[in-house]
Design a protein that fits this description.
alpha/beta; eight-stranded mixed beta sheet; 7 helices; 10 strands; globular
Amino acid sequence: MNWMLLNNKIMREIDFYKDIVIPTYVINLAERTDRLAHIRKQFEHKSEFELILVDACKHETGTIGLWNSIIKVIKLAIANDDDVIIICEDDHEFTENYSKEHLLRNIIEANEQGVNLLSGGIGGFKCAIPVTNSRCWIDSLWCTQFIVIYKKFFQNILEEPFSGKDTADGKFSEMTSNKMVLYPFISVQRDFGYSDVTRINNEFSGQITRYFESANNRLSSVMKTYEKYKSMPFNQ
């Protein structure tokens, strides 16, 4: 391997990404000051994100409150003429796998593959198919703490009906087959010991963490199989 050529390629890539900034809409209930302090800390010294704090919509049904907050974000994104945004809940936490170049490269490549939604990490799924070394197509997803949404999907979200029986991740799972997740995860949910959206999780300590660990382990097996067979020659 020519390490000089490789190094030059890496430097050109870093230079290409250095001025890219992604509008990042953070949903937070005003009274959740602990979560606000946490999420601000997550984005410290990360100039690739244009942080936009959005007051969460309150509703007696937490899932409706979250969906109304997402609708609020989409309307802001349209008014701001954004081409791609990140919707971030205030319990998002970056993992050690995060890097600016990795995220931006995957946002661009996923867009070229026609994706409507790209998740930074999920707490569950049914089926997953690797499409690259760092992305899997998924048929469904649990958790929406860090999701990339592309402009072509904005209007679909605004027009989608939503009831008290629905959830945001369930809706996204149904609305489009063009969705992927980054692997390894760059985002997980921080367990604050309570949830304003999914109240059942309040009854089981550490449940959110276990969801992400389980999804990570399943995707790890999928990716290992992918790596094994993609390098094997096919008999003609």
